[in-house]
Amino acid sequence: QARLVESGGGLVQTGGSLRLSCAGSALLFGAHGMGWYRHAPGKEREFIARLARGGETHYAESVKGRFAISRDGTQNTVYLQMNNLQPEDTAVYYCNYGTLRPVGPWGQGTQVTVSS
Questions:
Q1: For residue 22, what are the β-bridge partners?
Q2: Any residues with CB less than 8 A from the CB of 44 and at least 6 apart, and which?
Q3: Which of 6, 26, 28, 65 is the most buried (most CB within 10 A)?
Q4: Which residues sit opposite 72 in a β-bridge?
Q5: How far is Cα 19 from Cα 69, in angstroms, rounded to an integer?
Q6: Which DSSP string corresponds to 64-77?
Q7: Angle at CA 74, nearest 5°, toward 72 and 80?
Q8: pLDDT bracket for residue 100 (50, 70, 90)
Q9: CA 105 to CA 22: how far, in whole Å?
């Protein structure tokens, strides 16, 4: 099914780490690739990371070197490992199918809050 379920968010101190999970359809992951996005209060939803069908990854400059996107062996879960978190990373994080643009329904997202 196309439904996406994000999890793993929480409250963390500056410099801490979290790993987000996104459960969805392995078929759709394989067909479209996957992207992570975030939506902070007062800002537009922004692209964070993508994992293409061939395994290529791409990151927004703001998270490059700190975040890593990956996919599990069963290929129906995609992860976002977030290290050295900063207060400006506070947002609701979403995943979606597609790499150039989101092509599926949005899930409920998972809240990440980084305290200073």
A1: 6, 78
A2: none
A3: 6
A4: none
A5: 10
A6: TTTEEEEE-TTSSE
A7: 25
A8: confident
A9: 13
Mean pLDDT, range 31-49, rounded to an integer: 95
Detail the DSSP E strand segments found in 1-116.
5-7, 10-13, 18-23, 34-39, 46-51, 57-59, 67-71, 77-82, 91-97, 110-115
CA quadruple 106, 78, 61, 38: dihedral sign? positive
| Neighbour tally for 4: CB within 10 Å | 24
* Cα gap 31→14, rounded to integer Å: 36
pLDDT above 90 as % of the chain: 84
Instruction: Give the tens place of pLDDT for each residue, 43-68.
Output: 999 999 999 988 999 999 999 999 99
Alpha helices in the chain (DSSP H): 26-32
Contacts for 63 with CB less than 8 Å, ≥ 6 apart: 48, 49, 82, 89
DSSP secondary structure code for residue 89 in this structure: G
C-alpha triplet 71, 81, 57: angle, nearest 5°: 55
